[in-house]
Structure formats: C-alpha cells, structure tokens
Amino acid sequence: MKHKLFTQALLLACWLLTSVAAHAQLAIEITGAGANRIPVAIARFDGESTLPAGVSEVVRRDLERSGLFSLVETGPQPVGADSIPDLANFRIRGADAMLVGSVAPIDGKRFEVRFRLFDTQRQTELGALALRMSSTQHRATGHRVADFVYEKLTGLPGVFSTRIAYVVKTGKRYQLQIADADGENPQTALASREPIISPAWSPDGSKLAYVSFEAKKPVVYIHSLATGLRSVVANFKGSNSAPAWSPDGERLAVVLTKDGQSQLYTVNADGSGVRRIASSSGIDTEPAWSRDGDWIYFTSDRGGSPQLYRVAPDGSNLQRISFSGSYNVTPRPSPDNRSLAFVTRNNGRFQVAVMDLASRQVTILTDTERDESPSFAPNGRMILYATEIGGRGVLAAVSSDGRVKQKLSVQAADVREPAWGPLPR
Amino acid sequence: MRKLLAVPALLSALLAGCGSTPMSSDQAGASVEDRSATSTVQTPPVQTVTPAGDGGSAARMAELTNPDSPLSKRSVYFDFDSFVLRPEFQPLAEVHARFLLANPDVRMLIQGNADERGSREYNLALGQKRADALRRGLTLQGVPEDQIESVSLGEEKPRCVDASEDCWAENRRADMLYSGEF
Lengths: 425, 182
Prior knowledge:
The complex is a heterodimer of chains A (425) and B (182). Chain A is mainly beta.
C-alpha cells in the first residue's frame, strides 16, 4: 500500500515536472515569411536512421523557420553524399538547390556527417563539408549544416548555431535563461526573486553582463557562462545600469548616477578605470557600441524628449541622430554599422523601427504595440525584441526588411529582455 | 547553497525516471545560481520595546513603523512626466528630514519608480529622477548627502499592475527605506 502510494506520488511528480519542462521551452510560431523564398530540397541523410534523431530534419526546420526558404518534398528515401542525385528531376519539382548527405560511424561513439549542396539549375556543386559529432549532437550538427546552406544560398552567415539570452518572469521569480536560437535547450544562468534586466553578451559569447536588483538597487554584474562565477562591474552609490560591451570585450559602457542623474561612463571589465564620456543636463542612457568601435549610440532627453544620439568612445563628436517624433529610444546599431534599430512611439504605440544611417530614413517594422529591447542577429538579417501579446510578455523577431515575422513565447510566463548572442567562434 | 543545488539534481533524476530529458547534451550547461533576497521591505526591523535609558534606538526604529506616526508614511507620488516634489508631500519630507537629523547614524535608501510604458532603462532613469527629487527635498532641510542614497527600481517593481491611469499614477512614486529595511 505504502509502495503503491509512493509510485503514484512519483508518477504525479513526473507529470508535473514534464509539464513544467514543456512550459519552460520557448515555442516559435512563424507569422510572416519572405516574399521570394528560395525553394530547396533537403533529402534525408543516408545512415542517419541509426542516430537517435535525424540531422536533416534539424536542417529542414532551421531553413523553414528563417522564412527565407521553402522546402521541396524529397520523399522518404535517403540520398547519400556520394550518390549523384537526379538534379534535373528536382529542378522540375521546383527546387533551386538540393542538399544530400551521409552519416557514418567512425567508432562506437563518434560519427562523421558529410554533405554536398547542389545548384539544380546549373547542375553544379555549390560546396561540400564533413563534420564529426557524437550521437547526441544531431541538433548542433544540423544547425551547422543549415548555417552552411544559408551562407551558400544567401551570401550571409547563418545564425542557426547562435544562442539567445532572455529573462523569464514566473510569478515573483526571475530567471536569466540562455537557449539555442530556435528556443531549444534552455538553461538557467541565474534565478532570483528580484528583477534582472539588460543582459548583454560579451563579443566572444562567453559572458553576460546584466543588471540585477538583488541588492535592493540596480547593480551591474558580469557572469561567466561556463563557470557560473560572477563579478561586480559597477556598484556605485545610486543606480548602476545599461551595460554595453566594447567590440574588443575589454571595456563596458554603463550608466551611473554617482555624480548626479543618469550619465554615461566606460569601465574596464574588471570594474576599474571608470571614465565619464558625456555630460548633459538630462538623462543619458541605453548605450550601445557600434561593431567598428567608432561610436557609442545612446538615448538622451537633453533636448526635452528622449531621442537617439551618438558620441565617440573618448567623448568627442557628439551628434543627435533622430529628429522626428517625441519618443525614440534604445538605439542598437546593425552589425554592418549601416542602420540603427530602435523603438519609436507612433500614435501611442511603441514599435521597433530601423533607420538607414546614410539617408536617415526611418521604417517601422512591426505591427505590435508594446515593443522593447531590439537586438540584431549577428548577421543583421533579423531583429529580436520583446513585446506584449494578450497581456503577456513574449519575444518576437522581425527581419530587417519587415517581411519575416516570428513569435517566441513560454506558456504561463512573461518573457522579456532578449539579447541575441554572437556567432560561435 | 548546497541544499539549493540538490533540488535541480533531484529534478533531473526524476525527469530521467520519467523518460524525458528537457535539455539536450550538445551544449555545456551554464550553472545555476540562486540569489534570494535577504530582507524584505515589509519586515519591521524591531518589534520589542527598549528599556528606558539606552537612547532608545529600538524605540525610535519602532516609531518608524508605528501606523500612528507620520514616519510610517514612506511614499511620495509624482505627476505624469514630472519630477517635482508636490507641495502636499513637503510636510512628510520635513518629518523624515527631522528624524534623519536627530538620528545621524541612521541611513535612508530612497527607491524611485516609474510606470511601465516605454523603455525599461529609460524608465529606470526616470525613477532615479523621482528618487533624486525626494532626496533634494530632504537635503534642503539640512540632512547630509551621505546619509541618503537615492536609487531607482524603474518599472521593475510595480505596486499596481493594471494598464490604467490610476495604476500608473500609483507606480510614479518614491519610497523611503531606513537602515535595517534594505
């Protein structure tokens, strides 16, 4: 009897835990796709049925989710990397490109994945690669294959192997999480009963800087993801917030109130060498370094309303960037330094927009109303941001041309403060 | 800490028993840290009455939480897009300033807040302006600068969470906390 009760309790615990695990996963929903999607045929890889899960299925899901590709059905028959596929046939079926591959064991534990990409129209090979993996690395390997296909067909590096950081709020509990770019494999880096905001990836992807309120005030920390060890970057009298890494990872721009109201400073990653870089009679905040290191973009209300500005990291050459509208915040330069993503208030709606820095032309990208915290993918193609749908915090992504749209949500929790990590090195 | 770390281990063991693994092993996991608040604003620092003759440090702290004392009133509210101490809160600022002047060893933390609309970091800066306005209201009465720290919680700790003007007004606020409460 006692044993039976224990079994029932265990089963109940199992049910609760698996449902919690399922809820903690970011679910991605595609709500808009590119206008001219590239039709690709991704055949099942020869030999992948011996793995716990297939590699080619990961590739298919990645490419489809990007909104830039449409999948041409290949049938259940695998096509190996050494076979010569009937490219003319797949051309007739609408495919512009075809991927074939083989998975073969090297020893008891490791496998070699070889694959080739073909142009079906010219009937030429676009490239081939071999990767090694363990039997449980089908997802990581699939992302790398998808990155290869994406780069060969679009000319831009793929971001399927990157990670994203975000904050999940469940009741009064806050978790800083890191997941793969497809929302899989979520890991909690920090759990707290006090808010966590403004996570920022170090350029090498090994650390996150963020603001935590666990000391009853905002303090900036750096958190090493491999070790879980943290250090304080800025804990001065007053508030410490808005960390942004320099492109070389050696300094951070931060906002401190130690000398009055919120102002911009830079500080070494170990917390030393604090230097003020701008001073204004208003608020200066939300710094973001351009990838070339030439500028620090920021929000300031020195002119009466919050607008976008930039300044050289040594404090010289201050310029105002935005002139239309009464609320333009959170400037985030694109990886190619040519455009700026930001949030603008437009008839009472807060929306993600991009500004072309050469022409200063602004395009609103979203149709949501409570947008915050835009973050560029490292290839500049997508912008991840936080918004609210149905009264709940969700993440959304929009392509920099506004066409591809995705929603990423966690059931029964608020998700906010996204930051897209760098390309893996 | 050791006890906390045992919980995820137990969860993993249970999940393994359920035939489901929530995390694939193709990535090194980041380790979990737990930061729990060590004290909360709601906890009164001292509840006992001190015998007469010791200067009354416990008694004076008890006064801060006595609902009949004006010192128990700790919140100051601000108008929309405004960072000026409203005249109606001037007497409250004076009461707290007198207390700080009479008790130079007691420190105050002022936490400014903002409503939820717009950027979190900009709202953090707006909350700081409210905390600073209240701090100025106290230092103008002669309270030394280093006795008060003003910080911001931005829109992160709303007292009210509905999307309505009444609610937003409730969150445009600065709160005064004394030593032992933060």
